């Protein structure tokens, strides 16, 4: 009979997330993961599998949380869809702590590092970006219903454009670009979407 686990699985995953987020997949050593989680190699691998399996669990949780957070943020009546879109882009302008080093989105970091060689990562990234595009499209359609975006705009194409700009803004933030650049980027994207 297997012995019951004597650790909090979610806490272990949170600790592993910090290691992968800070170091990336390749640079995160087993020693780093054991030190952060407080687990030995046998317990860590026994519970989560190898390093790649642990990383995929971390990425899965991060992506699910990111999509759920955006879903909550964009939830509401059509009459306030435009305001929620503006607020989303405003938050991207002010994202990050200007006094500290910028910290890239774990999904963006993981996609850049691993998508070309790890089909599971590429697939999870596509799934997450599609979910985000779906949420943005719903918000564009809501703004169209409220008369804040012209009805003749293609909502799906507009959502894809907004998604690309949001992801680009994350990269600009990570590079330490001035907030005025981010503000210009956000304003131009919203104007291009036809947001009044």
TrEMBL record:
Domain HTH tetR-type: 6-66
Pfam family, one: TetR_N
Keywords assigned by UniProt, alphabetized: DNA-binding, Transcription, Transcription regulation
Family annotation (Gene3D superfamilies): Homeodomain-like, Tetracycline Repressor, domain 2
Taxonomic superkingdom: Bacteria
InterPro entries noted in UniProt: DNA-bd_HTH_TetR-type_CS, Homeodomain-like_sf, HTH_TetR, Tet_transcr_reg_TetR-rel_C_sf, TetR_C
Start-end of DNA-binding region: 29-48
Keyword Signal attributed: no
Annotated TM spans: none
Single annotated GO MF: DNA binding
Keyword match DNA-binding: yes
Protein name: AcrR family transcriptional regulator
């Amino acid at each position: 009979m297997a012995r019951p686990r004597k650790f909090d699985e979610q806490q272990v995953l949170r600790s592993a997330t910090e290691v992968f987020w800070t170091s990336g997949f390749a640079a995160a050593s087993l020693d780093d993961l054991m030190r952060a989680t407080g687990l030995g190699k046998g317990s860590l691998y026994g519970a989560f599998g190898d390093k790649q399996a642990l990383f995929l669990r971390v990425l899965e949780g991060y992506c699910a949380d990111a999509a759920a957070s955006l879903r909550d943020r964009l939830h509401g009546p059509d009459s306030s869809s435009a305001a929620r879109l503006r607020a989303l882009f405003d938050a991207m302008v002010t994202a990050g702590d200007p006094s500290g080093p910028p910290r890239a989105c774990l999904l963006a970091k993981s996609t850049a590092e691993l998508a070309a060689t790890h089909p599971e990562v590429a697939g999870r990234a596509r799934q997450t970006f599609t979910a985000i595009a779906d949420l943005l499209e719903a918000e564009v359609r809501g703004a169209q219903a409220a008369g804040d975006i012209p009805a003749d705009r293609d909502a799906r194409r507009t959502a894809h454009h907004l998604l690309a700009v949001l992801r680009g803004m994350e990269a600009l933030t990570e590079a330490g670009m001035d907030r005025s650049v981010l503000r210009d980027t956000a304003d131009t994207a919203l104007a291009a979407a036809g947001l009044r």
